[in-house]
Amino acid sequence: MQHIQGISRHQLQVTSLEDKITPDNLVRFIDAFVQCIDLQKVGFTPVILKTEGRPSFKNQVFLKIYLYGYLNGVRSSRKLEKECIRNIEMQWLLEDIRPNYHSISDFRKDNPKALKQLFKLFVSFLKDADLVAGEIIAIDGTKSRAHNGKKSNFNQKKIDKHLAYIEAKTQEYLDELEKNDTKENVEKVTNIQQKIKRLKQNKIKYELLEEELKTSGEPQVSTTDPDARALLVQGQVVEVSYNIQAAVDDKHNLVVATHTINRNDKNALSAIALEAKENLAKETMTVLADKGYHTGREIETCTHNNITTIVAQPDQGKSNESGTQPDYLVSQFTYNKQENTYTCPQGQTLTTTGRWHKKSRDKENTSYLFQKYRTPGSKTCSVKDQCTSRKGGRELDRSQYAKVVEQNNQRYKENAQLYRKRQEINEHIFGTIKRQWGYNHTNLIGLEKVNGEHSLIMLVYNIKRTINILGIPDLIAKIKAWNSPYKRKDLFLIKTTYLNLFVAFVFFETSPNKLKISIV
User: Fold this and answer.
1) What is the reported pLDDT for 417?
2) What is the rounded distance in angstroms from the CA atom of residue 199 to the CA atom of residue 201?
3) Three-state SS string across 227-265, please?
4) Under a CB-based contact definition with an 8 Å cutoff, are residues 289 and 269 in contact?
């Protein structure tokens, strides 16, 4: 016999699913984790038993399915249904329960808040297991493509372009129609009339979109997913997407806070930093963030909440051939705190009247106060052409947040080595999730549901990384020993289906009328 032979498909075997799952199999952790949590306390919609019809499935079943699916790169409800049928690990995990894809899909859509709460619960476990320190937190964001194409996203400029095209095309058809009336070309006239009718319908559609845009007060509107927005992804590339925010602890690079927004990073720092502080129950912490988060109002909010920020400092203004040169950028001016004045590189003193002005940013729906600083000597300065192109001379603005921004910028300069750790702490996480796992988009619609799915993805990331740190047996032991307010009270009840039967001897006693099996 030259080749290894298989077992006959028709041979009967005395075995169980338990025998096929090794002690260090991932599904054993999923089972232990789900079984120790009271899902109703976490916020999952309770299953109400009905007097008629088929009995329902427990929430534990669906949570196990999704944890297994996302841990193994499967998130389609139809594919998960197939896994329940053909996958031995899923058969063991679910005790051979096989829900249909529709029920599986509904669980994820109906429980977005509970999935976010489950992520926070696992962060609480990580803190109690001393796997996170909560001292240095790196913050970053990444874009996840929404279930809404670019063609279904509109702003005023895009709507105006469509309406102008319809107007021009309609006029073109009307002119053509007038010419064809004299020639009595009935077929062509009918065709043109149909095109004009279709253009009128499209015009109504864009006018309704324009009205919706004005009513909402938003700069853009999406028709498939109303919460999705066209966001700048990289360089000049724009995608209709969501922005996943993540705060990552530096001890083991575990995610301690996450939520999804539909805007860019500019006004996102304080929300994710405060969420991390709350999840870890810390009095103080230090957060690292790139220059996309450098906003005075956000830095001040963090400061007032005992969060020390080290946010990269963006370039202070730009130089150009006909205006400000590099030697005369804002950063080259010295501020005198006692006198509330600025001194320029040429020694001129810029003063303020003390009056506060208000500046609004309509696109970001934010505003702030600032003071203006001027000097009469700027008009006659010998280097005026290098300093400014304004006829009235150089003018500086100082915002109400300037003090905390300057403190942050000073920390950034003094902690260059610490700031470099930011990329090491959090950027690989998004690479793993998007490039390696392929979770670079969402098929759910609505900000709340997308938040639920992204929280599940971050939970799965934390689970995988924790397994790499501790190993499955140790992680299971820690989960079972964990004292949590969300722990199930009936956790330690013994199920007879999991008792090990030690069979010492089996003998058969037969007779003409019966078959007797005795187990000793």
Assistant:
1) 92
2) 5
3) CCEEEEEECCEEEEEEEEEEEEECCCCCEEEEEEECCCH
4) yes
User: At which residue do the structure tokens 């039967």 appear?
Assistant: 501
The amino acid sitting at 63 is: L
CA atoms within 13 Å, Cβ hemisphere of 138: 23
> Which positions ≥6 away from 450 have C-beta within 8 Å?
112, 144, 146, 227, 242, 260, 442, 444
With the CA atoms of 29, 30, 36 and 40 taken in that order, what torsion angle do they form, in degrees rounded to the nearest 10?
A: 170
Euclidean distance between CA atoms 480 and 483, whole angstroms: 8
pLDDT at residue 463, rounded to an integer: 97
d(CA 264, CA 253): 24
Q: For the segment 319-376, what is each residue's pLDDT rounded down to a tens digit?
A: 555 568 888 888 889 999 888 999 999 888 999 988 999 888 655 567 888 999 999 8
What 3-state DSSP class applies to 255? strand
Q: What angle do CA 201, 207, 210 make, to 5 degrees?
A: 150
Report the distance separating Cα 511 and Cα 412, nearest Å: 90
User: What global pTM score does this model have?
Assistant: 0.86
Q: Are residues 126 and 57 in contact, defined by beta-carbon separation less than 8 angstroms?
A: no
Q: Please tell me the distance from the alpha carbon of residue 194 to that of residue 460, in angstroms, as a whole number.
A: 54
With left for phi above 0 and alpha for psi between -120 and 50, is residue 310 left, alpha or beta? beta
3-state SS assignment for residue 73:
coil
CB 343 within 8 A of CB 336: yes
* Block residue for tokens 């429980």: 111
